[in-house]
């Protein structure tokens, strides 16, 4: 038994506990998993906004190119280069400072003469003259024109980095605390207060590894940046302001360059067009500048507690470096609530599974114990029955041999014959009990049910058994209510019940050999009680005495003979007749075993 318990524990219980522990660990990561899935869903929104923002920059660049080509249609490139800044200002309503470079890289327009008295042009020459002329390199972002609408490769690289960060976070079970990092090196010293932000869902990032922009700045002069392209975009930070440069090489003068410089402040009217017309009620979207401040919001007027930490965001790219299309959950705690619900459900399921395993184990062990106990009882039954069969056979043979030898006095012969008959009856009862029990187990017991008077059955049975009891030294009595006792039953089966009750009282009577039979009627039942002054039944085992093979004193060493089937068979036969046998202890010691049977309306 102990070995089976250990096998069950090691093979089933222990692995189940391990699986439950792993499942609980998985349940604790539900918020990370839920945020990651939600982020994948919402990332498409920010990708679309970032693409729209790049498209707006491309539209402005094309508008600039169209204006330059219109101007070139009226005059040659060298002629247009003279006073190009003023001509572009008249031809294009956008607030931009135009410039023209010669094939040698010299700045033709705006000249110092043109900038006289114009503060904006003077600042332009001061900040950009050396860079555009190729004499001083600068840290910039360059975008060839054909790449403005092809961000897929860059977005793929960014996603790979974000997914790696998320995977590392899930492995380490860390939750990101949004952190600020110094600005990228492409800004000058006056812009070091600007901050980078996490662009993946904040809770799936490793707090020691904040997200870093995937944009790569270049340090070069303008001539080197434009040497192998016909047109494009260059962006740079100047005095903590983002400036955008559109440039174009005219086909008839490829050595020359026409361009313009715009401040992002001049494009304020564009940003609203990058956002969707309508946002879902559970989130808000915004276009953030390099300082993490919104330049466009949907729905308009929405106030978010912390613009620097969106749920998901997509970098727009080199056209607007460090700008992001961001999405914010209106109820961030909803994810935590959903994760808690998932965790709670998983915990309940795991607990239910473990409880089912524990209950199943208990049932298996309880059944195993019952089977072992039953097997032991069957073993004891075989031993007891063998002894029961041997004892009467020995007596019968001994007295028969004595009489056969002629050594028995004549006055002893009747006594010996009575003993032989009694032992034969005892042997018959034992065999009948075993056979009837086997038939009941196989549901093959046959009955001859008919109306009868139980008082007559009881009288015949008591008459035959009382004599035997008196010979054994018992004091007997029968207290009976007036007959008849009309019942519907099998006469032999009812007689067998009474005999088994009397035999049981006889076996368990010790020094006080007293047996009483009480028969009486109630409103709907007849009761037959067999009372003795024997050893009784130990406390707590009153119902077990009706179990098969059970004996209250189940040991050959106890000196009490029996098979353990008498009361079991009597109870089953009583129930087949619609009745019941009950046990009660008597004051002063002994037992009261009562048969109850239903009465019929009348005796036929």
Question: Could you characterize the architecture of this molecule?
Answer:
With 604 residues, this protein is an alpha+beta fold. It folds into two domains: 12-331, no CATH class; 389-598, Histidine kinase-like ATPase, C-terminal domain (Heat Shock Protein 90, 2-Layer Sandwich). The protein is built from 13 helices and 18 strands. Strands 2-1-7-6-5-3-4 form a seven-stranded antiparallel beta sheet. A five-stranded mixed beta sheet has the order 13-15-16-18-17, with helices on one face. A four-stranded antiparallel beta sheet has the order 9-8-11-10.
Q: What would you call the shape?
A: rod-shaped
By DSSP, the count of extended strands is 18
**How do the strands of the widest beta sheet line up side by side?**
2-1-7-6-5-3-4
Q: Kindly give the count of domains.
A: 2
Q: What is the average per-residue confidence, as pLDDT, rounded to a whole number?
A: 79
Distance between the termini: 57 Å
Count of runs of 4 or more consecutive helical residues: 13
Radius of gyration, in angstroms, nearest whole number: 53 Å
Let me know the largest β-sheet: 7 strands, antiparallel
Beta-strand content estimate: 15-25%
> Which structural class matches the secondary elements?
alpha+beta
Q: Helix proportion of residues, in percent? A: 40-55%
Uncertain segments: 151-155, 157-162, 164-210, 555-559
């Amino acid at each position: 038994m102990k070995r089976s318990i250990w096998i069950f524990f090691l093979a089933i219980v222990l692995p189940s506990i391990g699986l439950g522990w792993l499942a609980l660990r998985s349940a604790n990561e539900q918020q990370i998993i839920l945020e990651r899935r939600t982020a994948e869903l919402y990332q498409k929104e920010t990708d679309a906004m970032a693409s729209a923002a790049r498209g707006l920059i491309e539209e402005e660049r094309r508008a600039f190119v169209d204006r330059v080509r219109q101007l070139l249609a009226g005059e040659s490139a060298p002629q247009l280069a003279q006073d190009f800044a003023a001509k572009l200002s008249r031809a294009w309503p956008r607030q931009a400072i135009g410039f023209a470079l010669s094939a040698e890289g010299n700045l033709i327009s705006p000249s110092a003469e043109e900038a006289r008295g114009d503060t904006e042009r003077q600042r332009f020459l001061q900040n950009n003259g050396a860079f555009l002329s190729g004499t001083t390199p600068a840290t910039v972002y360059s975008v060839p024109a054909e790449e403005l609408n092809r961000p897929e490769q860059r977005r793929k690289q960014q996603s790979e980095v974000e997914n790696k960060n998320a995977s590392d976070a899930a492995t380490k079970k860390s939750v990101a605390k949004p952190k600020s990092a110094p600005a990228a090196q492409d800004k000058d010293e006056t812009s070091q207060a600007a901050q980078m932000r996490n662009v993946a869902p904040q809770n799936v990032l490793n707090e020691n590894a904040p997200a870093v922009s995937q944009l790569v700045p270049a340090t070069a002069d303008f001539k080197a940046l434009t040497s192998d392209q016909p047109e494009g975009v260059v962006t740079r930070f100047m005095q903590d302001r983002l400036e955008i440069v559109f440039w174009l090489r005219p086909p008839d003068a490829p050595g020359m360059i026409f361009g313009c410089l715009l401040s992002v402040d001049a494009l304020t009217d564009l940003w609203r067009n990058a956002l969707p017309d309508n946002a879902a009620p559970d989130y808000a979207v915004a276009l953030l500048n390099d300082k993490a401040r919104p330049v466009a919001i949907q729905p308009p007027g929405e106030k978010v507690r912390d613009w620097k930490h969106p749920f998901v965001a997509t970098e727009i790219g080199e056209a607007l470096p460090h700008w992001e299309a961001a999405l914010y959950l209106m109820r961030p705690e909803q994810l935590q609530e959903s994760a808690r619900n998932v965790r709670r459900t998983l915990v309940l399921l795991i607990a239910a599974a473990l409880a089912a395993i524990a209950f199943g184990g208990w049932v298996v062990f309880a059944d195993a114990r019952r089977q072992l106990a039953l097997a032991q009882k069957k073993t004891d039954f075989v031993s007891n029955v063998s002894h029961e069969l041997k004892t009467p056979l020995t007596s019968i043979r001994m007295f028969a041999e004595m009489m056969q030898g002629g050594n028995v006095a004549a006055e002893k012969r009747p006594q010996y014959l009575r003993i032989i008959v009694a032992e034969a009856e005892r042997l018959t009862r034992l065999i009948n009990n075993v056979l009837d029990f086997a038939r009941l187990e196989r549901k093959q017991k046959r009955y001859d049910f008919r109306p009868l008077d139980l008082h007559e059955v009881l009288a015949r049975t008591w008459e035959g058994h009382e004599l035997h009891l008196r010979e054994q030294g018992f004091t007997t009595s029968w207290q009976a209510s007036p007959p008849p006792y009309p019942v519907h039953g099998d006469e032999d089966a009812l007689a067998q019940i009474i005999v088994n009750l009397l035999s049981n009282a006889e076996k368990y009577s010790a020094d006080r050999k007293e047996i009483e039979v009480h028969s009486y009627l109630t409103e709907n039942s007849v009761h037959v009680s067999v009372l003795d002054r024997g050893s009784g039944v130990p406390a707590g085992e009153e119902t077990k005495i009706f179990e098969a093979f059970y004996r209250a004193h189940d040991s050959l060493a106890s000196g009490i003979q029996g098979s353990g089937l008498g009361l079991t068979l009597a109870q089953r036969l009583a129930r087949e007749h619609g009745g019941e046998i009950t046990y009660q202890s008597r004051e002063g010691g002994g037992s009261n075993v009562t048969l109850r049977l239903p009465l019929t309306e009348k005796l036929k």
